[in-house]
Design a protein that fits this description.
The chain is of the alpha/beta class and 149 residues long. Helix content is 33%, strand content 17%. A hairpin with a 6-residue loop joins strand 3 and strand 4. Helix 2 packs parallel to helix 4. The model has no long low-confidence stretch (mean pLDDT 92).
Length: 149
């Protein structure tokens, strides 16, 4: 049996059926939540999934400030970035980031699980992360459905 690959005209029709989902991150483990949300953003669970097209849905993550880390990650995990200058390596432990920028931590975990290709930036625009449940009010017009894991 041959694999079905939609043509460009058919792909446009698929793009119209985007859904909005809301995920409550309260008490969820960071990595497990990130992998499940990344799967929805990619559209991997849809029957019309095509690797070279953006078939995924929009996801709103709320309560990112109440995310949970397992093991010794709170003590050991470090985010690094380099300015490009000699001695420009910056290291920030997650213990310092979680109280201030938990939404950034969740967003980086999810985006890190997306494929590194030309569709990544487009898929990243379909992700919204908020520290608390108040961010959900911004997307009431889209009528997001709860995504159960």
């Amino acid at each position: 049996m041959r694999t079905y690959i939609p043509k460009a005209r058919e792909a446009e029709a698929l793009q119209q059926g985007k859904k909005w989902y809301v995920v409550d991150a309260e008490g969820q483990v960071l990595g497990r939540l990130a992998s499940r949300v990344a799967r929805v953003l990619i559209g991997k669970d849809k029957p019309e999934f095509t690797p070279h097209l953006d078939c995924g849905d929009h996801v709103v993550v709320i309560n990112a400030g109440k995310i949970r880390l397992t093991g010794a990650k709170v003590e050991q995990k470090v985010y690094r970035h380099h300015s490009g200058y000699p001695g420009g390596l910056k290291e920030v432990p997650i213990k310092r980031l979680l109280p201030k920028r938990a939404d950034w931590v969740v967003r980086e975990a999810i985006l890190g699980m997306l494929p590194k290709n030309k569709l990544r930036a487009h898929r990243a625009r379909k992700l919204r992360v908020y520290l608390d449940a108040a961010g959900l009010e911004r997307h009431a017009g889209q009528k997001p459905q709860p995504l159960a894991f």
